[in-house]
Amino acid sequence: MVASNDLAHWRGQIFARLLQAVLLLGIVTAIPSALLAASEAIWSIVALDLLAIGWIGIIWHGRAMPYRWRVWQFLIVAYLVGVGLLLKIGPVSQIYMMLMPVLAALLLGMRPALSTLALTSLTIFFLGLHPDVALQIPGTPDSPVLRALIVALNFLFIAAVLTLSCAFLLRHLESSTQALSQLNADLRLTATALARLNDMVMIAEVADAPPGAGALSATRIIFVNDAFERSSGYARAEVLGRSLLFQHGPDTDADELARIAAAMARAQPARAELLNYNKAGKAYWVEAELVPFTDADGKQTHWVAVEREIDERKKSEADIHRLAFYDVLTGLPNRRLLMDRLGHLLAAAPRDHKVSALMFIDLDHFKHINDARGHATGDALLRLAGQRLAQLMRKADTVARIGGDEFVVLLAHLADDLDSAARAAAQVAEKIRAAIARDFDIDGQSYHCSASIGVTLLPKAGQQAHDLLREADIAMYRAKAGGRNGIAFFEAAMQAGVERRLTLERALARALSLADLRMHVQPQVDRHGRVTGAELLMRWPQADGTHIGPGVFIPIAEESGLIVRLGHWALREACRTATLLAQAGSPVALSVNVSPAQFRQPDFAARVQAALAEHGTPAGALILELTEGLLIDQRDASLARMRALADLGIRFSIDDFGTGYSSLAYLTSMPLYELKIDKRFIDDTPRDARDTAIVQAILAMARHLGLRVVAEGVETQEQADFLVAHDCDGLQGYLIAQPMPLEDFPAWLARHQA
Q: Which pLDDT does position 385 carry in this prediction?
C-alpha cells in the first residue's frame, strides 16, 4: 500500500509537470499554428488548436478533480488532436496518435495502455480507409484496405514497443518501489526499536584498517540509542566520533579491557562486565556484548555494542557474597572465608617458606555483659572489639568472627623461622590483649572486657586448616584456665590432654549406660562419736582395679552435659541405699550432691518425688547438698523449687560453705538444714589463725541462725577436738572413716556402734 501510494504520487507529479509543459508549449506553438491556419482559411485547424489549448487549460486548472478523470481528459484531447490532424494534414500526424498509449502506460498503467493502444491502432486503420487520408505505399497493390492494414500494423508494432516498454518499466519500478518501501519500513521499525530499547546500543564504524596483523582498529561511534543517552548522561552529539570504550575509568578492570581489545583486534565477538562512568563521573556496572560486522568482501566495517545496566544484579551478588563470606554483625570475614584463606595460605606454604600464626580470641565474661545489659549492648561491644582488632592488622592479615564472642586472627608470613615468628606473634597477641582490655564506651556507659588468646604457628606437616583452628582453640582454653586475660601458645601436651578428656567423656557416657559407676559412703558423726548421717560419693572403677576420682570425671560431666544424667542416677541410688539401710535396721540420713545444671531442670522436683516413690524412701532420709553459686543465680526460681521440696520433707545443705558468695540474706530466706565447712578451712585449723577465725565465725553464725554445721576433711584429733570444743554438730573425714563401698557400710556401722 505504501509503494502504491508512492507510485501514484510520482505519477501525479509527472502529470502535473506534463500539463504545465504541454500548456506552455501549446500556447507557444498553437497560437502561431492557428494564425498560420487562419491566413490560409483552414478554420478547422484553428478551431482544433484553440479547443485543445482551452481544454488542457481547464484540465490544468481543475486540480481538485480526480486524478484519473483528469488524465483521461488529457488523453481524449491528444486523441482528438491526432484524429483531426490525420484528417487535415495526413499520415505524418500518426505520431500524435502514438502519444495516447505511451502516456496511458506512464500515467494509468498496463490495462489502460493496452486499451488505448487498441483504440489508436483501430483508428489508424479506419482512417486509412477514408478518402481524405492519402496513404501512399510505393510497390503495393492499389488496395485501400491493404494499405490501411499495413500502416495500422506498423503503427501497432512501434506503439506497442514503446507502450509495453514504458508499462514494463513502470511495473518493475512499482515492484522495486514496493521492496524499497518495505525495506524502509523495516529500517524505520528497527530504528524505532533500537531507539526505544531499554538496552544501550552503540554502532561504530571501523575508522581505518589495522596497520598489522592482530592490531586493533580505531572505532568511531555513529549511532547511540535513547537508552544510552539516559544511562550515560551524554547527548548523542557528544559521543559521535568517539571510541566505543570511551566510558572506562580508574576502577574499570584493566584486564577486562585488554581482553576486549584483543578480541576486537581478532575481529571476534566479546562479552564482559565492565564498570563504566557516566557524564557526571558516577560509576555503574554494565554487561557489554560487542559484535563485528563485515561487508560482502569480508572486510570489517562496523562494531555493534549492546550494553545493559547490571547495578542491581551486582548489588545482589555483593549482598550474597557478603552474607556467604562475612559476618553480618561486625562486617568481618566469617568462618567460611577464614578457612578459605587459611587453606590458600597452607597451599602456598611449600613455595613461600614463611611461618604464619593463627590466633583464637575469646572475650572473657562477655556473657555477663550480654545478659545484664541486653543483646544490643553486647552486639555493640562485639562491633567495637572487631574494629579494634582490624585496626591492629596488616592488609595481608585476616580478622574473622566465627561466632558468639569468638574471633580468629590469621597473621600471614610473619618470619622465616619459628622463633622469630613466635616472637612476632606474641607481640601482636599482647597488642590485642591490651586493646581489648581498654574500656568500651557504649551509649555513654563504660564496659570492661578482657580476652583469652590461644596461638598456634603454621604450617605443620600433615595438618589442615581445621586442625590448626582446633589447636588455637585448645590454646585459648589453656589461657582461660590460667586465669583469663592471658596468652597461651599451643603445645603438643595440650592436644594430648584434650584427646584424653574426649576419651574420658565417651567412656563416662558408656559407663553410665552400663551402670559401671559405684556409690561409696563416708559417715558423719556428732561430738559424741554417734553416726548421724553419711555422704554418698561417686566412684568410677576401672578394669585394672583402680578408680578414676570424681575430681577428674565430674568436671568432664559438667562440660559435656552428662552431669544431669549422672545426677539423676545418683539421686536414685541415694533413695535405694537409704531404703536398704532402713530395712537392715540402720536408718541413716544420706547426703547427695546436686549439680546446678540438675537442680535447674524444670522437672527436678518431679524426679525427686519419683525416686522417693520408686524405692519407698521417706523424704526425711534425704539431704540434698547444693553450692552457694546456685543460690545466687536464678534466686527466685531456686527458692521456689527448694520450698516445694522442703514441704515434702527434703532437707538442704550448703556444700563447701565459705568458698562462694555467702550472704546472710540468702541464708535467712532459704529453707536450709545445714552448712558444710569446706575442707580448705579445716586443714590448717587450729594452727592457722585466719582459718580458725573463719571456722569460728561460721559456727557462731550457724548457731544463731539455727543451722546444723558439718565440718568436712577432718583428719587429725587436734582438728576434731577443736571442732567439738566449739560445738560443731558433725564431723566428716578420714579421721572417722574413709569413703567405703556401699556393701561395706553396714559392717562398719555395726563395728562402730559396738
A: 95
**In Å, what is the CA distance from 169 to each residue of 2, 87, 100, 157, 164?**
19, 33, 17, 18, 8
Calculate ∠ Cα 101-102-105, nearest 5°: 85
pLDDT averaged over every residue in the chain: 84
Helix (H) or strand (E) segment spanning residue 666: helix 664-669
For 724, the grid coordinates are: 567439738
Please say whether the beta carbons of 256 and 239 come within 8 A: no
pLDDT, tens digit, for every residue of 77-129?
Answer: 778 777 777 776 666 667 777 778 888 877 887 888 888 888 888 887 777 77
The DSSP secondary-structure symbol of 285 reads E
Cα 470 to Cα 355, 424, 481, distances in angstroms: 18, 21, 16
Consecutive H or E run containing 83: helix 67-88
- Residue 300's pLDDT is 83
Question: Cell numbers at residue 711, please?
Answer: 565440718
Of 169, 172, 56, nearest to 105 by C-alpha is 169
CA distance 588 to 749: 10
Give 258-299 pLDDT, tens digit per residue: 888 888 888 889 898 899 999 998 998 988 888 888 887 778
Instruction: Rounding to the nearest 10 degrees, give the CA dihedral for residues 175, 180, 182, 186.
Output: 160
Residue 510: in which H helix or E strand, if any?
A: helix 492-513
DSSP 187-220: HHHHHHHHHH-SSEEEEEEE-S--SSTTPPPPEE
C-alpha to C-alpha distance for 412 and 501, rounded to whole angstroms: 32
CA distance linking residue 400 with residue 339, whole number of Å: 10
Q: Is the pLDDT of residue 140 over 80?
A: no
Per DSSP, 1 falls in state -
Nearest-5° Cα angle at 479, 475 to 481 = 110
pTM of model > 0.85: no
For residues 487 and 430, the answer to whether their CB atoms sit within 8 Å is: yes
pLDDT at 209 over 90: no
**pLDDT band at 213; cut points 50, 70, 90:** very low
Q: What is the mean pLDDT of residues 416-431?
A: 89
Residue by residue, what is the 3-state secondary structure of 516-565?
CCEEEEEEEECCCCCEEEEEEEEEEECCCCCEECHHHHHHHHHHHCCHHH
Distance CA 215, CA 204 (A): 17
685 vs 691: CA distance, rounded Å? 6
Please name the amino acid found at residue 468. L
- pLDDT band of 65, cuts 50, 70, 90: confident
User: Looking at beta carbons, which pairs linking 306-312 to residues 24 or more positions away fall under 8 Å?
Assistant: 306/199, 306/200, 306/201, 307/199, 307/200, 307/201, 307/202, 307/228, 307/276, 308/198, 308/199, 308/200, 309/200, 309/231, 309/284, 309/285, 310/273, 310/285, 310/286, 311/284, 311/285
